[in-house]
Write a structure and sequence with these properties.
- By secondary structure, the protein is mainly alpha-helical.
- 64% of the residues lie in helices and 0% in strands.
């Protein structure tokens, strides 16, 4: 299970602001993402799974045009 802090840090490493993450995950706006980051809303399973795959796999990042910034 991914915690809100882990999700926020992963998105930071991927260069995803709240607004960019909202577009990427096809949710209404950055407020939704910020609610995941703060723990106010639960993180949807597909968001956690894809975020984890993006962090772990260069080929997945390449598929989405993202880079990992340590």
């Amino acid at each position: 299970t991914m915690t809100p802090t882990e999700l926020r840090e992963a998105h930071r490493k991927l260069g995803l602001s709240a607004a960019k993450a909202a577009l990427f995950f096809q949710v209404s706006d950055g407020k939704t993402v910020r609610r995941w980051w703060s723990g106010e809303s639960s993180i949807p399973g597909p968001v956690a799974v894809l975020t984890d795959a993006l962090i772990r796999s260069k080929s997945v990042r390449d598929s989405f045009g993202l880079e990992l910034d340590e």
